[in-house]
Amino acid sequence: MPPRKPKAKESSLGLMARIQRKDPKLPRFIVVPSMLVADWGVDQNVTVTGELNGVNLGRRSLKRWDAERWFIQLPEPICKKANVDTGDMVTVTMQIAEDE
């Protein structure tokens, strides 16, 4: 599935990403290319909601890594529920979370 750029801040984005992990003691994460987030007009961490292979992510923090990348940490319970592990390719959809 090719990356889908959001058209506005309220829109969602979708991508396929590989689950990564730098160290077994650290959480897994996925990388989101900055070009996909650009139309949202955000330049700092933002709370998103979405799905990982159809499993609800809940409210997650999309964090800026550098000029080209953002990332989302994937806690163990979400990975277990989605039946995914480090190295797996996953389908992710997300949108900026509504304020509570």
Structure, described:
This protein is mainly β and 100 residues long. The protein has a single domain (12-96), classed as Elongation Factor Tu (Ef-tu), domain 3 (Beta Barrel). The protein is built from 2 helices and 7 strands. It has helices at residues 34-37, 76-82; strands at residues 12-18, 28-33, 46-52, 55-56, 60-64, 69-74, 89-96. Strands 1, 2, 3, 4, 5, 6 and 7 form a 7-stranded antiparallel β-sheet that branches. It is globular and about 30 Å long.
CATH class placement: Mainly Beta
Q: Please give the count of helices.
A: 2
Task: Report the oligomer.
Answer: single chain
| Low-confidence blocks of residues | none
The CATH superfamily name is: AF2212/PG0164-like
Name of the CATH architecture: Beta Barrel
Order of helices and strands: EEHEEEEHE
Distance from first to last alpha carbon: 32 Å
**How large is the share of residues in beta strands?**
35-45%
The CATH topology corresponds to Elongation Factor Tu (Ef-tu), domain 3
The average pLDDT is 90
Computed structural class: mainly beta
Helix content: 10-25%
Per DSSP E runs of 2 or more residues, the count of β-strands stands at: 7
Q: Give the domain tally.
A: 1
Question: What best-fitting shape do the alpha-carbon axes yield?
Answer: globular
- Integer-rounded radius of gyration: 13 Å
